[in-house]
Amino acid sequence: MNIVGVDLGGTFVKVGLVDSLNGKIKRKTEIETQVTSGKDSVLKRIAEAIQKITAGENYIAVGIGSPGSIDKKRGIVRFSPNFPDWNNYPLGPELSRILNKSVFIENDANSFVLGEKWFGAGQGYEHIVALTLGTGVGGGVISHNILITGSNGIGGELGHVIINPQGPLCGCGNHGCLEAYASATGIIRMAKEKRKKFPDSEIFKANEITAKSVFDAAKNGDRLANKIINEVVEALAIGITGFIHTFNPSVIIIGGGISRAGDILFKPLRERVEELVMPSFKNSYKILQSPLVENAGILGAASIVLQRIGKRD
Amino acid sequence: MNIVGVDLGGTFVKVGLVDSLNGKIKRKTEIETQVTSGKDSVLKRIAEAIQKITAGENYIAVGIGSPGSIDKKRGIVRFSPNFPDWNNYPLGPELSRILNKSVFIENDANSFVLGEKWFGAGQGYEHIVALTLGTGVGGGVISHNILITGSNGIGGELGHVIINPQGPLCGCGNHGCLEAYASATGIIRMAKEKRKKFPDSEIFKANEITAKSVFDAAKNGDRLANKIINEVVEALAIGITGFIHTFNPSVIIIGGGISRAGDILFKPLRERVEELVMPSFKNSYKILQSPLVENAGILGAASIVLQRIGKRD
């Protein structure tokens, strides 16, 4: 069967028509979000994009992965930092009215773990912890086959678990959250802080410091870059060890732009986590790189529908 | 209906006949565990204790809260640190054979959260995080009404979430676990470490340093005792903030010997957690002291049965 997945971002909205049996994206399109045009305009253009890619094809429902705090039962965006006029916006019901289809919404980090479960590295597992390492750190947990969202649906904020109370200030106001280390923001901050001590680092040769330039420099043996990656790995290892002790998951799946660094991140991370976990947890889990890459958003959004209806055919 | 709850400890086994409708313990008894007598002897004496307190009364099943790693599906104690000859011992099936009743087993920290849900401060809630602060720190989580035990049934080890990687060595081999601060072991360690600097502290007036003597001294204004409690509170607040961000629970319930310190622990803890949680989580939870006190073990064990059969009458 076909499902529409909508990956709602602050800059772009990606819309895809997904074959739920194999996760193939039959058609997709991308529009600019243009938040400042107002929510009615954004809604109208999302609906048009869906109508365009589904022309002549049947589909059963729409899933939307949205940033922010979501009331999943009622399909309402409670608030979303980059969408200032969307407070308590009934995005689901409004879109459903235009399209005459069911619309399901989840927070985008939660839809990421669903995408991994239905189409990615989490297939066949009932206990999955997922992290997206991008500008920030998003988290999503499936435990006992249930998406863990908590009493108000706002759980799974794994990026804001404090892993070092003496650590750097995080955007949330606390010190030493996982996000303060294992995000592009954290990596760039660390590079800037150490610039005086390592003025000749390859990191500073380009116009702009990015997480990618740090990983690239590390692969070339750059000392500062490797120091930064050690910090990222240590922070991730401490956080993931806690998640393993808490959830006893079968797999920990890491996605987002930073995950594409590959072995230079995953090899030391796997070693360090295996050192840190308690004996009974050793070899009880795998740490995997998300295979979904640029389709993670659309497939995650489509998976919201599969998770709610509990089947794929 | 009646249920038998068995609280299996390293020193004592408490056995109670519980009325599941109101959590009243109709009869109870306590026997010495005598682990060194061998598992067959312990089993036989547990069975006799159950037969004694249930004489003339019908009961539907037995729940056992056991330390260690439990295979709940098969009723097997995989291993338990204080029960060296119990590796892979089929405690459930063996006891079931003697009594001709169903026997359900859970890890004791998990049975604690179940006891709170069915008979304690967690009644009516579907999202509960529970901590027992004793010699160590035990954890149990109910999320979306499901006991979170993970893929091998060993999750919920909230005492071994690392909250400060520069912190003191924990019994598990890592540094700065929650247990290294918020347990009797951690409190006594902190007192001993600071003895030279605070030789006149009231804590050292008694023959033995205990967690209780530290809390008592703090209530009398003792400086060192208050410093230690500040550390306990800070560690618990960091850990609990992480659990709130992860699970978005309705209630966090704290039991175990240290919880009996009462307001001197709970008041600063509530204030500090509310400071640390992100804005969307403020006022989303309550931190409660376990009301079950010395019956927590038996009621928790009885609750294992209720959780498995999903009802209390």
From TrEMBL, chains A, B:
Xref: Gene3D superfamilies: 3.30.420.40
UniProtKB keywords: ATP-binding, Kinase, Nucleotide-binding, Transferase
Short name of one Pfam family: ROK
Origin: domain of life: Bacteria
Residue stretches spanning the membrane: none
InterPro entries: ATPase_NBD, ROK, ROK_cs, ROK_glcA
Keyword Nucleotide-binding: yes
Its EC number(s): 2.7.1.2
PROSITE patterns given in the database record: ROK
PANTHER family: BIFUNCTIONAL UDP-N-ACETYLGLUCOSAMINE 2-EPIMERASE_N-ACETYLMANNOSAMINE KINASE, ROK (REPRESSOR, ORF, KINASE) FAMILY
Family: Belongs to the ROK (NagC/XylR) family.
Name of the featured protein: Glucokinase
Species of origin: Thermosipho ferrireducens
